[in-house]
Specification:
alpha+beta, 23% strand, membrane
């Protein structure tokens, strides 16, 4: 009956040369971090840098999208100002903070109808 309450202790072997095994145990963590950096963090940083450059060069006539989902056309923009005047409907203009602009929908190409000169 006394053997029922007392468990048998088994000797464990000593881990010899643990230096290489500890490096190999951290290798998956390093690999996961590298994958996360190149797939998630780095592209997001590049996109934020691109958006900052687009906001610096914001000019009249550019179409934008705000954080609230409002699409409009820039009417007034000063480089040193934190606000931009945006037309969201005909004759409806609002002041928008530059930091709330999430996308600049600038098209440098001419519209299809303007490509050809009208014949007289």
């Amino acid at each position: 009956m006394s053997d029922f309450f007392i468990s048998t202790a088994y000797a464990q072997t000593a881990g010899g040369g643990g230096g290489m095994s500890s490096i190999m145990s951290f290798l998956p963590f390093v690999a996961v971090f590298a994958i996360m950096y190149f797939l998630l963090i780095r592209p997001q940083q590049q996109r934020q840098k691109q958006l900052r450059n687009e906001l610096k060069t914001l000019r009249r006539g550019d179409r934008i999208v705000t954080a609230g989902g409002v699409v409009g056309v820039v009417q007034k923009s000063r480089e040193d100002a934190a606000e931009v005047e945006v037309e969201i409907a005909p004759n409806v203009r609002v002041m928008v903070l530059r930091d709330t602009i999430t996308t600049v929908l600038t098209s440098t190409a001419k519209p299809a109808n303007d490509a050809a000169q009208p014949k007289k």
